[in-house]
Amino acid sequence: MKFVSADRPQTEEGYQYHIACKPGDVARYVLLPGDPERVPKISALWDEAKEIAFHREYRTHTGKYKGIPISVTSTGIGGPSTAIAIEELAAIGADTFIRVGSTGAIQPGIEIGDLIIAKAAVRLEGTSKQYVRIEYPASADYEVTLALIEAAETLGVRYHVGITASTDSFYVGQARPGLNGYFPSFAKHLIDDLRQAKVTNFEMEAATLFTLANIYGLRAGCVCAVFANRVTNEFGKAGEKEAALVASEAVKILAEWDEEKEKKGKKYWFPSLRKL
To answer: Of 24, 143, 207, 240, which is most buried, counting CB atoms within 10 Å of its CB?
Structure first.
């Protein structure tokens, strides 16, 4: 296989080195879990699906959900691998991304298995800083966020909307003691400071996703199942299927809104568009 250049490792046909996909392999709407094992769990909820590629941490399935073309690609953990996924998926035609992951809640009133829809992210990771200055906001696309809320309401799941904090470290970076009790002073006050600022949760990819999507003119959102409750110090795996269903249903909603915008000649969706 011959690649065009070291600057952009892809073939003349557009085959992307890391994700092992080419134009036509993925839909415009792509769900982004971190874990490759979540990919078949998500696609099993669709009408149909097939595996396109599985290279390194990047596993891709493409199919249809309620008649809408949809894809899912795992990103691995953290910002660096997520950025590669966004770069290469966008290069082959994807333009709308929804992170489907797990998270740790830091505010009271959020239970294990609840969903958190992120409207923005605190950029505590390093990847986004290599793309743009630190003052640049990591904000979710409003249409994707509204579609996620609509989907959660339609499916009747318990959810919250808030600001996530994306980190590069699961342990000390999220105010957990490291090996042998290593716990520097700056980490000890992190949760209290974020809680006072009304940040709802920790995870590791949304800030990179939101930042790159805004830079490149793409759309992105995020829905995560709460596995960790940092208020009560509980941990459990729950809400994974619900998060996947909400994200898939949001794609159906977005496809309907996109069709509606095209018919009405509008660039942005708004609630009274259907009345025009």
So the answer is: 207
Within the chain, residue ranges assigned H as helices are 38-43, 79-91, 142-155, 185-188, 190-196, 206-216, 240-264
Catalytic residue among 230, 240, 242, 249: 230
From the number of C-beta atoms within 10 Å of its C-beta (0-12, 13-18, 19+), residue 237 rates as: exposed
Catalytic residue among 18, 28, 38, 99: 18
User: Does 18 qualify as catalytic in the annotation?
Assistant: yes
Active site residue 176: yes
Mean pLDDT computed over 206-214 = 98
Tokens of 12: 């003349």
Average pLDDT, the chain: 97
Three-state secondary structure call for residue 188: helix
CB contact at 8 A, 215 and 179: no
Q: Which CATH superfamily is domain 14-255 in?
A: Nucleoside phosphorylase domain (3.40.50.1580)
Catalytic residue status for 189? no
Contact assessment for residue 69 and residue 29, using Cβ atoms and an 8 Å cutoff: yes
**pLDDT tens-place string over residues 5-44:** 999 999 999 999 999 999 999 999 999 999 999 999 999 9
- Domain ranges within the chain, ordered by starting residue: 14-255
pTM beyond cutoff 0.85: yes
Considering the candidates 38, 57, 59, 88, report the single residue annotated as catalytic: 88
Residues in Cβ contact with 157 at an 8 Å cutoff, skipping those fewer than 6 apart:
115, 239, 242, 245, 246
Cα–Cα distances in Å, from 166 out to 62, 96, 200? 27, 20, 11
Do the Cβ atoms of 188 and 154 come closer than 8 Å?
no
